[in-house]
Design a protein that fits this description.
2 helices; four-stranded antiparallel β-sheet; 227 residues; 17 strands; Jelly Rolls; 2 domains; single chain; mainly beta
Amino acid sequence: MAIVGSVVVTPTVSALTLTAETATFPQAGLTIVKVLTNGVYLSIPIDSSRNAILPAAGGNPTYAATNAAQISGTGRDVTWKLNGTVLNYSIYSLTTTPTTVFYYGTPIPGDKPLANYAGVATTVTLSSGAGTGTLTFPGGGLTMTGISATMGLVSGDGSGVIEISFATSAGQTFNAFIPGALLTQNTSNTDILPVSFPVAQTLAITLALGTTADKIVVYAFYSGTPS
């Protein structure tokens, strides 16, 4: 149960655009056990229909516009075995040269299978502190298992808390309040609010309580096989 090596990648990307990249490892069949990035989040294919969404944990500042070049913190604990030597992933970043570190070794306590992070993400631009967006899942018949957000993507701006609201299949409204310091202060095991709702392929969300012109990335995690 230890990290034995790492691969560091610093590609040139377009800011706030999900960009496909690759990381090359020294040998095939290595097991990734931790990911640390100063991007906003990574998307890694699980299979042909699902992607794992890895928001930066510990190292992603709440007010990313002023601190995005700084990388620190615990990283996100995961575990998955590479089929070959090349890892395909996509990164969404505030800066044009984000740095990501993939650590490999044997699984360490707290690691979660990559499939546990099956999820989707959407960016909402606020106007007067509010906005609307749509989370698009890879199919129907899924259960939402978690929700979180990253805020502060506009220079000089940053929400202290964001309220995410949506209607559940029971005809009720669910409200999630995500503190601005959540990703900064907590570890990767506590920064996702656990929920359990059946969801359709698309889910309309409403954001409130933000600052005037911030951009918010909302993450939704799910379980099940898309139908």
